[in-house]
Amino acid sequence: MSRLDWADVVDQARSIVASYAERVTLRQCFYRLVAAGTVPNTASAYKRLSALTAAARRAGTFPDLADHGRQIARPLSFDGVDDAAAWLRRAYRRDRTAGQPSAIYLGVEKDARSSRNWRLGTTSWGCR
């Protein structure tokens, strides 16, 4: 592979990320670029893409990426009892498999894919 034009690579990465309805991980974006033959499948190319997209995100010129590996743990809190009750009305779901002899479960290997398969608070399933 010839010398990479990293500005072009970041532009292509921006287009890939924008083509999804939900956030994608850097790894997803990287493998799309590898599959397209844009970048080699090397640790150094991944690290370079990571550094450049991070700088572009800080500059406000690149969309946010999903990061399922890092979360800030914070207790759920509400502005008052009415706010808590409204949240509980939206979040409450009955177990529709209770009392059933069988249940269907979907096993997802990668955490990044799980957000695509189940939208919290809905009963819609979707796969790309």
Structure in words:
The structure is a single chain. The chain is 45% helix and 0% strand. With 128 residues, it is mainly alpha-helical. The chain has a domain at 1-81. Helix 1 crosses helix 2. The radius of gyration is 20 Å and the shape is elongated. Residues 120-128 have low confidence and may be disordered.
Core attributes:
single chain, 128 residues, mainly alpha, 0% strand, elongated, disordered C terminus
Distance linking N and C termini: 30 Å
Helix content: 40-55%
- What sort of overall outline do the alpha carbons produce when their principal axes are compared? elongated
Overall pLDDT metric = 85
How many helices in DSSP terms? 5
Give the percentage of residues in beta strands.
under 5%
Q: Please count the beta strands (DSSP E, at least 2 residues each).
A: 0
Rg, please?
Answer: 20 Å
- Main β-sheet: number of strands, strand sense, barrel status? none
Order of helices and strands: HHHHH
Helix/strand/pairing category: mainly alpha
Instruction: State the low-pLDDT regions, or none.
Output: 120-128
Summarize, please.
The protein is mainly α.
Give the topology:
Blueprint: H1 6-18, H2 26-35, H3 43-58, H4 81-91, H5 111-117
Helix pairs in contact: 1-2
